[in-house]
Amino acid sequence: MKPDVTAFFDNATNTISFVVKDPAGTSCAIIDSVLDFDYSSGRTDTKSADEIIAHVQKNGLKVEWLLESHVHADHLSAAPYIQEKVGGKIGIGKNITVVQDTFGKVFNEGTEFQRDGSQFDELFTEGDSIMIGQMRCDVLHTPGHTPACLTYVIGDAAFVGDTLFMPDFGTARCDFPGGSSETLYNSIQKILALPDETRIFVGHDYKAPGRDEYAWETTVAEQKAANVHVGEGKDKDAFIKMRDERDATLDMPKLIIPSLQVNMRAGQMPEPDEEGDVFLKVPVNKL
Ligand SMILES: [Fe+2]
Q: Which residue positions does the secretion signal occupy (predicted)?
C-alpha cells in the first residue's frame, strides 16, 4: 500500500509537514503541522496551517488524525487550530508524560498543568496501530532526540520525525533534556530494519554542503548505504562520540522557549489571565 504524500516546507523553521492520504479514498492524516510564530513581536500567524487546510478542502479530504512525531523544540504545532477547522484527533507518544514532567519543572508550571498527557486525544506506544481510512498506521517508539519520539509507518512510508535526516545531513541532535545519542542510535536501527524500499520522510531539512535544493524523501536502502552518521561502515561508539561532540557546539533552536510551552500542551497556549491575555515565560539560565 502506497499512501499519497503531500509535503509542505516551512522556510522559517525548516520543518516539513505532511498530508498522508489513503490512495483508495479521501481519509488522511496530517503529520507535524506548524503554527507560525514571530518571536520578536510575540505574534502567531496561521499562514502555514491555512495552506494545509486549503489543500484538505480543495481535495475534499477527511482529516482523521493530527499526528505529532514528538514535542518539537523549533516550531509551534498548529494541530489544535487545524482540528478546529477540519477535525481529526491529536496523537503523540505516551512518553509525553516524561516530557511534561521535565518541562513542567523548567517552566515552573503550577498544578493546573496536567502531566498526564490528557491535553492530547490519543497517546501511542510501540506496537500500537491505528486506521486512517483503509490505511493502517503502525507506531514505532524511536526515542533519543526526545523521550517521546515516534515513527509512524503507513504502508510503504515511514514518517521518522527528527531521528534520521536526509542521508547527506545525518541525524538529529540528542542534547535536549531526556535525549540520548545511544538511545537514538538504537532507535535508528529499528527504522533501518524496515524493508529496503520503504520511503522515509524526514521532519526537517537544512540542505547539506553541495546540495542546492531542500529534500525530505529518501529510502531505507539509501539511508543504510549513505547516511553520513549511521550508514555503511559507521559503528555505534563512533556515532555516540560524534553526536555528543557535535551537540555540544549547537545553539538552542530560536523558538525553543515558546515551542516547548505550547507543544507540551498539545499546541494550546497557556491559560489566559483574568483579562483574557496570554503570556509565555522565559526561564532564565534554565536551558
Ligand atoms: Fe525536534
A: none
